[in-house]
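Review session, final week

We close the course with one last complete record, chosen because it touches almost every idea we covered. It is Biotinidase, a protein from Seriola lalandi dorsalis with 160 residues. Go through it on your own first, then we will talk.
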Amino acid sequence: MLLIVAVCLCFSLLSVVGQTEPVADSSYVAAVYEHHLILNPEPHVPLSRPAALQHMQKNLDIYEEQAARAAQKGAQILVFPEDGLQGFNFSRSSISGYLETIPDPQQESWNPCTEPGRYNNTEVLQRLSCMARRYNLYLVANMGDLQPSVVQQVHKYTVS
C-alpha cells in the first residue's frame, strides 16, 4: 500500500556569512512505500549476477509501478523499504551477485541513466536513476555496494 505523507518543513537557515533572515517556507510531499518483497528462497546460496538481476528486476518492476503512482499523487520523494530490492539473510558470499559499484558522489559526477555504459554492473542503479528521471522524483532505495577489497552494505542511497 502506498502511503503518502505530507511533510512540511518550515525553518530558518543561517548562511555561512551569518544571514539571520528566514528563508521562504519549504515543504515537500513524501511517499513511503512498504511491500511484501519477492524474496530469494535460498539467500545463503550464491547466485550469479544474471540470476541476482533477474530476482531484483521483479522487485524493481513493483518499484516502477509505485513510483508512477506516487508521482501521480504529487509526491516529490519516494522512500522504498530497507532491503526491498534483494531481501535479507544473505551471507557475505551469497550477497555478491546482488552488489553494484556505487561511485562516491563526493568524488565524481555521474548520472547512471544518461551515462549507462560508464561503469559495469550498475543495472539496478541505472534503472533507479531512470525511474527518478521519468517520474521527476527523488528516490531513496537500499542497495548493496561493492568497493574494491571491501564489501559493505549501504543502507540509504538517494538517486535523483
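Two points worth writing down before the exam:
The beta strands are 2-9, 26-33, 77-79, 138-147, 150-159.
Residues 30-159 form a domain with the Nitrilase/N-carbamoyl-D-aminoacid amidohydrolase fold (CATH 3.60.110.10).
Good luck, everyone.
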